[in-house]
């Protein structure tokens, strides 16, 4: 639609003239509808039919109408989709409508590829506090893995094109050792066929481990005055600040010139005259530890 200035020159006399030309696209796009057969799992991302246009490299594909025919007892197809398409280019030219049938193949349950287990024995356990989790602290399937059918996600199945449902249920395995959390993720696929159904179950083991020590921060340095007779002082030693990304801190011990105080809580400690170094050690449930001194 842009105006162009054109010049015509007589080759013999050299005379010339000018004029303004407006170039417009008046040709409609070409759209080709051919019947197709695909897996039902890819119908929601279907990109055909083929469209070409003389000017617009990316003409618009318009879905005019869709009807869905259930074929519950067909050996090969779960549904037949009839679609009517129309194409539109950047100049607003519209193609004629075309219609095509898309035969949706029923999934084969034995072709589903399930996510691998995540466990210490396989060298790939999850590390607590490093992944997206649900309200129970269990990893989301986007973290632990999703079943695939021919390379595409088979869960969740929320469209109208496939005759199956997929889901999972988590079962905690309590081993009596809080250091490793074990989850049995039970995947279940149910496929309807005619008046019957098929079921496939798969158990994915998920282990969550804690290899990281707590984070601990000691109190600030303290200056105290001894009494004149013993050259010792009773000094109030506050608790350090300790945090563990995987759960609670199991215990904090204080090492000082007078010995060790297990499971320390804030109290007065007797210290001799001079410079004393005190050290806190914090443990988590897996007995990972970290320390600080002041």
Describe the structure concisely for a colleague.
This protein has 294 residues and is mainly β. The protein has one helix at 141-144; strands at 3-9, 16-22, 30-32, 36-39, 50-52, 60-70, 77-88, 98-105, 112-113, 126-127, 148-149, 152-153, 164-173, 181-193, 196-209, 215-217, 232-237, 241-243, 249-256, 259-261, 267-272, 279-284, 289-293.
Structure description:
The longest helix has 4 residues, at 141-144. The N and C termini lie far apart (79 Å). The strands form 8 sheets. Strands 4-8-7-6 form a 4-stranded mixed sheet, with no helix packed on it. Strands 10-15-14-13 form a 4-stranded mixed sheet, with no helix packed on it. Strands 20-19-22-23 form a 4-stranded antiparallel sheet, with no helix packed on it. It is 1% helix and 48% strand. It is built from 1 helix and 23 strands. It is elongated. The mean pLDDT is 91.
């Amino acid at each position: 639609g842009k105006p162009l200035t054109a010049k015509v020159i007589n080759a013999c006399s050299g005379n010339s003239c000018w004029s303004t030309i407006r170039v417009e696209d008046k040709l409609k796009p070409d759209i080709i509808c051919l019947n197709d057969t695909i897996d039902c799992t890819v119908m929601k991302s279907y990109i055909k039919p083929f469209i070409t246009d003389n000017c617009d490299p990316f003409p618009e594909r318009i879905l005019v109408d869709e009807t869905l025919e259930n074929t519950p007892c067909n050996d090969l197809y779960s549904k037949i989709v009839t679609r009517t398409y129309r194409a539109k280019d950047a100049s607003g030219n519209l193609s004629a409508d075309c219609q095509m049938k898309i035969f949706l193949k029923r999934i084969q349950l034995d072709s589903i590829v399930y996510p691998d287990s995540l466990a210490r024995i396989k060298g790939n356990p999850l590390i607590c506090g490093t992944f997206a989790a649900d309200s129970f602290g269990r990893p989301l399937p986007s973290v632990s893995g999703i079943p695939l059918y021919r390379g595409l996600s088979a869960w969740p199945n929320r469209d109208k094109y496939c005759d199956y449902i997929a889901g999972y249920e988590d079962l905690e395995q309590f081993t009596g050792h809080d250091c490793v959390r074990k989850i049995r993720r039970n995947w279940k696929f149910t496929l309807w066929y005619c008046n019957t159904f098929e079921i496939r179950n798969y158990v994915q083991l998920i282990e969550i481990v804690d290899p990281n020590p707590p984070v601990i921060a000691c109190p600030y340095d303290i200056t105290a005055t001894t009494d004149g007779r013993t050259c010792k002082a009773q000094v109030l030693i506050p608790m350090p600040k300790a945090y563990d990304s995987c759960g609670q801190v199991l215990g904090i011990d204080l090492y000082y010139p007078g010995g060790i105080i297990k499971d320390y809580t804030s109290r007065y400690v007797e210290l001799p005259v001079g410079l004393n170094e005190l050290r806190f050690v914090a443990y988590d449930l897996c007995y990972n530890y970290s320390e600080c001194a002041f």
